[in-house]
Specification:
286 residues, mainly beta, six-stranded antiparallel β-sheet, five-stranded antiparallel β-sheet
Length: 286
């Protein structure tokens, strides 16, 4: 009670200030605005809390109000620093814990570093299943990708892998070039590393000059067979190591017999000649 006068109708008396009985003592708070008492329970709001440990006197129990943040498990996550991606396990957010007699504050706790992947350009394409890190195309550039010991790398389905290209003919004016099998650009994974390889053109094998098309060209071993569709009137040659061969549809030059011809009353005797056509001597046509 505060100091003052009291009147009972017939008498006025003066009373000095009298303090109430101490009921509960709470230590470690920064304000009394966030404290309330109901029976033997003291409820504490966030506004009363700092980072100090909060305790209460015997006979009373502490309780956190609804506005107080409690620690929660944070999800595992990837973070990226330049081209190094780090996978961190579950951690804890900052918050307060109450066991009835004590309120304690715990700072944020990061999860344990589990996997470290170097050589990536993004973490969006990374996922973890057990001890395997799967990598999508969106995470890959041309750098070599590695992972720490204990983990294995795996390419996702959308990643382009190198493929063998077929042997092929190409034509530049009247020169046809036969190129052996090559490789397309793509990624290769051996479990511990992912590497990128540029496209590799096949080796130039045969070069045929004097043709008008590659449609009539085919290769078997060291022999280039030439069909009629590839031939004009130019001389055809092939590079050393290869032999030319006429296909069945090519008209070959034939020898004509000696013969008489008559023009009115004039007879002419002509010696053997040749019909129009192609002949082959192995390395060239003429």
């Amino acid at each position: 009670m505060t100091a003052g006068y009291y009147c009972d109708g017939s008498t006025i008396t003066y009373s000095a200030e009298k303090s109430g009985q101490t009921l509960a003592t709470v230590t470690g708070v920064k304000s009394v605005e966030g404290l309330s008492v109901s029976g033997r329970t003291v409820t504490v709001k966030a506004s009363a809390l700092g980072t100090d440990k909060v305790t209460i006197s015997d006979g009373y129990t502490l309780k956190l109000d609804k506005d107080v943040t409690k620690p929660k498990t944070s999800a595992s996550k990837w973070t990226l620093d330049k081209t190094t991606a780090t996978y961190t396990g579950a951690g804890l957010t900052a918050g307060y814990h109450c066991d009835g007699s004590t309120i304690t504050y715990s700072a944020e706790k990061s999860g344990q570093t589990l996997a470290t992947v170097t050589g990536v350009k993004s973490v969006e394409g990374l996922s973890v299943n057990g001890r395997t890190v799967t990598v999508k195309a969106s995470a890959l550039g041309t750098d070599k990708v590695t992972v720490n010991d204990g983990y294995t790398l795996k390419l996702d389905k959308d990643v382009t892998k190198p493929k063998r290209t077929a042997s092929a003919w190409t034509l530049d004016k009247t020169t046809a070039t036969y190129t052996g099998a090559g490789l397309t650009a793509g990624y290769h994974c051996n479990g511990s590393a992912i590497t990128y390889s540029e496209a590799k053109a096949g080796q130039t094998l045969a070069t045929v000059t004097g043709v008008k098309s590659v449609e009539g060209l085919s290769v078997s071993g060291r022999t280039v067979t030439v069909a009629a569709a590839a031939l004009g009137t130019d001389k055809v040659t092939v590079n050393d190591g290869y032999t030319l061969k006429l296909d069945k549809d090519v008209t070959r030059s034939k020898r004509t017999a000696s013969a008489w011809t008559l023009d009115k009353t004039t007879a002419t005797y002509k010696s053997a000649g040749l019909t129009a056509g192609y002949y082959c001597i192995g390395s060239r046509y003429g």
